[in-house]
Write a structure and sequence with these properties.
This protein has 277 residues and is mainly alpha-helical. Helix content is 70%, strand content 0%. The protein has helices at 2-43, 53-56, 60-68, 77-84, 92-116, 137-165, 170-184, 193-196, 201-222, 228-241, 250-272. The longest helix has 42 residues, at 2-43. The two termini are 35 Å apart.
């Protein structure tokens, strides 16, 4: 019994070190990447920045995961990739990962039309001034998938969620990630126009992000811990909500739908703790 407790304590300590290392690298890389942007915005400085430096910061969670899995022992990186990027999951979850944000988007387009009296401009749909003007919808979609899709989800759902779920329910793990996820975004509120203009809308953003974490945990667990469906979900959702056109109505509607979905999922994940199939 004593040996078993000692072994469990060692396992917990190792897991704690992995998580702390992951968070240190994730926050360190992202915040250092965003620091020049913050300085330039707040102090009208002229610190040199790379093209797309905001998107560079999205790779913090990916880098944190890559380093942290190396101290698991055994196959480390290969074993993590085999799970996180596996296609051996029920394909309905890929349909869910793509379909849900598309449904959000369809409802948001309808709401945009009702509130503004016109359909979104098809020529600028999904586009953002944060990217070069020659980028079209498909190029912008690819950027979101490769940066905040793969960059973030490799860490949040690819590494941190399964680590926390070793100790906590899926619902509790999702809530813990939501708090960390919010903190990770903090520097953006001092330089990114989308965040600077939120005002009291930050409360809605925080609630939406919390329930978004619940929705993504549900999809990831259902996908047998593969992050491919959540990368697709994240990329499409960002395409819809971070575009210049979305600032009026679409982002708010998409966020409200995520909140509603998350509330419905709370009952399943919070009470039963079951992994979806």
């Amino acid at each position: 019994m004593q040996v078993s407790l000692r072994s469990k304590s060692l396992q917990n300590n190792t897991q704690n070190r992995r998580i702390i290392l992951f968070l240190a690298i994730t926050f360190g890389f992202t915040w250092l990447s965003w620091l020049p942007l913050l300085i330039n915005k707040q102090f009208t400085a002229e610190v040199p920045v790379l093209p797309g430096q905001f998107y560079l910061g999205s790779f913090g969670p990916l880098l944190g995961a890559l380093v942290s899995v190396q101290i698991r022992g055994g196959t480390g990186f290969r074993a993590w990739c085999k799970t996180a990027f596996s296609f051996a999951f029920p394909k309905k979850w890929l349909a869910i990962g793509a379909g849900l944000p598309l449904v959000y988007g369809a409802v948001a387009i309808l709401a945009h039309t009702l509130f503004t009296g016109s359909l979104p401009d098809i020529h600028t749909f999904g586009l953002t001034s944060d990217l070069p003007p020659q980028f079209n919808l498909w190029m912008t979609s690819l950027v979101w998938m490769l940066t905040f899709g793969i960059g973030e989800e490799s860490g949040w759902r690819g590494f941190l969620l399964p680590e926390l779920h070793k100790r906590y329910s899926l619902f509790t793990s999702a809530l813990l990630i939501a708090v960390i996820w919010m903190a990770w975004h903090l520097p953006a509120f001092w330089f990114n126009e989308s965040y600077l203009g939120m005002g009291f809308g930050v409360l809605g953003w925080a609630i939406s992000l919390t329930y978004g974490s619940v929705v993504l945990a549900w999809i990831c667990a259902g996908s047998r811990w593969s992050i491919i469906p959540v990368i697709v979900w994240h990329g499409i959702f960002d395409l819809l909500t971070a575009s210049d056109q979305a600032a009026e109505v679409m982002a708010m509607v998409c966020s409200m739908l995520v909140i509603v979905h998350g509330i419905l999922l709370m009952r399943t994940l919070g009470r039963s703790g079951r992994i979806p199939s």
